[in-house]
Automatic annotation (TrEMBL):
GO terms for molecular function: nucleic acid binding. This is DUF7769 domain-containing protein. Pfam families: DUF7769. It comes from Panicum virgatum. PANTHER family: OS03G0834800 PROTEIN, OS04G0681850 PROTEIN.
């Protein structure tokens, strides 16, 4: 498999030039020489041709042949500077997804995804909390006070109290996903009313042994 890399080290570039020089005759390459050298170093032929072209330019200018990489140390694509403090000023309803947040910041969503992988942005799942009115708080406080012993002001013995809770589950879903063979027929799932799916109830009781 041909290596599609674009950044060759200076030693590799020099070795490629020497391999071309050995196969040249009077400064000219034979047919398919660049292809042979490209297969030898497992790179694309265009890189070999570019190195030979650079060497010919140096010889034409009567200077020392230098096929090293001309890129500076600070080269390539620069990182996009993002003011992270701007995220806190964006309304919450406009940053529910990375795509929406990227649109507000004016950057690519891949940039924010990279920041998320680095831990600079966190994902938060928010759930609704019950809103307690004043009478709800009063009822809860009265229940807590009712669990106190009037004489000692300590909580009463709760080993004779059983805590129960119930949970309702739908017996099926409106839409379900299956993985099937191509020759299998689609299953037929029917119900009298999709908005009235039968339910089952689980009752849980917690008490001391």
């Amino acid at each position: 498999m041909v290596d599609k890399r674009k950044n060759l080290s200076d030693n590799e570039r020099q070795a490629i030039y020497e391999a071309l020089l050995l196969r040249s005759v009077n400064g000219k390459l034979k047919r398919r020489t660049t292809t042979i050298v490209a297969h030898l170093f497992n790179i694309n032929r265009c890189y070999v041709q570019a190195i030979w072209r650079t060497a010919k330019q140096c010889l034409a200018a009567r200077v020392l042949v230098d096929v090293s990489c001309k890129r500076k140390n600070n080269c390539g694509r620069k990182k996009v500077a993002i003011d992270m403090s701007r995220i806190a000023t964006i309304p919450l309803n406009k940053r529910t997804t990375l795509r929406a947040l990227a649109h507000e910041l004016g950057v690519n969503s891949s940039t924010l995804h990279r920041l998320f992988k680095q831990g600079k942005i966190r994902r938060h799942s928010n759930t609704l909390k019950p809103y307690l009115r004043d009478d709800n708080k009063k009822t809860r406080l009265q229940y807590c006070l009712g669990m106190l012993d009037a004489g000692t002001l300590q909580f009463i013995d709760m080993r004779n109290i059983i805590h129960t809770d119930e949970k309702w589950f739908n017996t099926t879903k409106k839409a379900k996903r299956f993985y099937m063979l191509p020759e299998e027929e689609d299953p037929l799932r029917t119900i009298h009313n999709k908005n009235s799916i039968p339910k089952c109830m689980l009752l849980c009781a917690v008490c001391p042994p």
